[in-house]
Structure formats: structure tokens, C-alpha cells
Amino acid sequence: MWWLSTRRHGGQQPKKADESALSQILSENEDERRDVNAVDSDGRTALLFVSGLGSEPCVKLLAEAGADLDHRDNSGGLTALHMAAGYVKPGVVKLLAGLGADPEVKDDRGLTPLDLAKEILRVTPKGNPMQFGRRLGLESVIRNLEEELFEYAEVQEILEKRGKGKDLEYLVKWKDDSDNEWVKAKFIAEDLVRDFEAGLEYAVAEGVMG
User: Where is this region: Disordered (predicted)?
Assistant: First the structure.
């Protein structure tokens, strides 16, 4: 691929993002410049590759050059956010979200990047020192995606609660009529939580009588 370089290591040639080469290509005149959204046989663009590789500088360069942030490949329907989440690149996840990548795009299995990260975390062994860093990275990915998803969402009503401490969650009803969802307490407005804990109920007035 034109956006990648290779290096020999142990007889293999792992790919890595080449920021300087990419920058040079993107700065060429229009006749020589490559299509920033060109795809390979799996339908993957440069952005998907560098996101999976964890190269924040390359992600930024491609985004500034007009890369499609929500492009889905044809080998699973993965986006750049899916790649960053799946390969445990929390910095790239945060960068893509800040650039405007849609965290709610689903892959061919119906999984959002957040769903994918949670799925991988569930099968990553606990108590294994070799997996400790991976679990921390996945938790960071999940935290970044949750912050992006719930930052602008409006809760109409809290229905139930479960868990304690940092694991405390509330089942919320969204104002946009999306499916009810369990959400960490820190993502819900404090006044709504206080009202729920006080046993207050919400109602919608049908009309003013006098």
C-alpha cells in the first residue's frame, strides 16, 4: 500500500504507518496526488489501516486531506473507529471522535466500536499480568467512546438502577425515543439522579386548564 512502509523483523515484514511519506504524498500537486479514499481488495482505506496501527499523526493528516471518517470496509463493515477500538488504540479513538467520526456506525455483526471493545474486554483474561496492559487499554477505549456517545444525549427519565460505586448504572429513557439503555452514573445529569433517588416521578402535561 502506498501509505505504508515495511521493516524486517525476525524474518517477517510488519507494516507501519510512515508519517513523513504520507505527508509528502498528500502535499504533491493534484496530478500526482493519490486518492485519499482509495481502497484495497478488502475495501479498506488508508485511514482504516493507520487507525489500526495507532498512528495519530497519520490519522490527522488523512482527516485534514478529506478522508471519509466513517467509511466501512467490505470485510466486516469496519470503520476507522472499529479498527482503533479493536486494536486497542485509545489515543486514536479519542482523536477520531474529536474529528467527528460517528461512534454509532455498526459493523456487519451489528456492533458499534463500543460494542466491539466491550466484547474484546469480556474475553481478555483477568489476573493475567501479560494481559494487564491490554485490559487497561480497552478500558480507556471504552471510556473514550462512552464519553463521546453520552456527551450530547438527553435523558428523559431514569427507570432503574444497579451496581454500586464506580459500577453504578441507571436504566435511562432517551428523549429521542431510542431504546432504553444502561448508562454509567457519571454520564447523567446530577439533578436527574437526585430526583430519581428522591422518588420523584416525571409526567408530561397535556394542556393548561386555567
Answer: 1-20
